[in-house]
Amino acid sequence: MSNITEEYVEEYIRELLPEDKGLLKEIQHYAIENHIPIVHKEVAALLKVITKTSRSKKILEVGTAIGYSTILLCQAAGEDCHVTTIERDSERVEKARNNIKKADFTNNIQVIQGDAQEVLNFLDSKYDLIFLDGAKGHYKEMLNNCIDSLKVGGILVSDNILFKGMVANDDLVIRRKRTIVNRMRDYLHYICNHPQLDTTIIPIGDGVAISYRRLEE
């Protein structure tokens, strides 16, 4: 239970959505067994819809983990797409690269090992879609680089922005998580009022923010 919506609603939605097949199902099971966080089922479905409807071909992901959402994004984007994804954990990078090879997406996906805040400084491409799923306490610090890398008309998807409901309700806040909660509240206020972004917040998974990049007024 994520504390984002009623448990019965969450369960109903997840039962409705089709199960993963093939490699994605294999990766999902591995993630569960090894306590590796991947996107929630309903967020995965949202990412696929956003990628397809926006016709995104050039995608940036911050936070690869073992490549589940990376492969999902690549599948949704279709032929001639390119996904750049950043992950600092060396073991996860190795596992992600192996999964990407199994998916036969080696030519479509580039995995960059390193700290996202540092890597973002050196990217010189413009992306149709950016999926921000890295260190929750550093979203705001990464935002300006993400906006610079996002084309006008592009979409920024920020995951886990309600952080088990703690961002929305002080009664749920765990003391040791207070700093992350405060930073995420600051991030949400910032993107909801940013002159270059139109943003909405969707209470599914662990909370998702979707931002559309427009020209500054």
Structure description:
The longest helix has 15 residues, at 178-192. The protein has a single domain (7-213), classed as Rossmann fold (3-Layer(aba) Sandwich), CATH 3.40.50. The mean pLDDT is 95. The relative contact order is 0.15. It starts with 6 loop residues before the first helix and ends with a strand. It has helices at residues 7-16, 22-33, 41-54, 68-77, 90-102, 116-119, 139-149, 178-192; strands spanning 58-62, 82-87, 109-113, 127-132, 150-159, 197-202, 208-213. By secondary structure, it is α/β, with parallel strands linked by helices. Strands 3-2-1-4-5-7-6 form a 7-stranded mixed sheet, with helices on both faces. The chain is globular, with a radius of gyration of 17 Å.
Task: Itemize the secondary structure elements and their pairings.
Blueprint lengths: L6 H10 L5 H12 L7 H14 L3 E5 L5 H10 L4 E6 L2 H13 L6 E5 L2 H4 L7 E6 L6 H11 E10 L18 H15 L4 E6 L5 E6 L4
List keywords for this structure.
single chain, 217 residues, alpha/beta, Rossmann fold, 7-stranded mixed β-sheet
Brief digest:
This protein is an alpha/beta fold. The protein is 41% helix and 20% strand.
Helix-strand category = alpha/beta
Beta fraction:
15-25%
According to CATH, the fold-level topology is Rossmann fold
Taken together, the total number of domains comes to 1
CATH architecture: 3-Layer(aba) Sandwich
Q: Tell me the CATH superfamily.
A: Vaccinia Virus protein VP39
Shape: globular
Largest sheet: 7 strands, mixed
Output mean pLDDT: 95
| Computed Rg | 17 Å
List segments where confidence is low: pLDDT < 50 over at least 5 consecutive residues. none
What is the distance, rounded to the nearest whole angstrom, between the alpha carbons of the first and last residues?
A: 40 Å
Total strands: 7
Q: Strand order within the widest sheet?
A: 3-2-1-4-5-7-6
Helix content: 40-55%
State the name of the first-level CATH class: Alpha Beta
Number of helices: 8
Query: Order of helices and strands, N to C?
Result: HHHEHEHEHEHEHEE
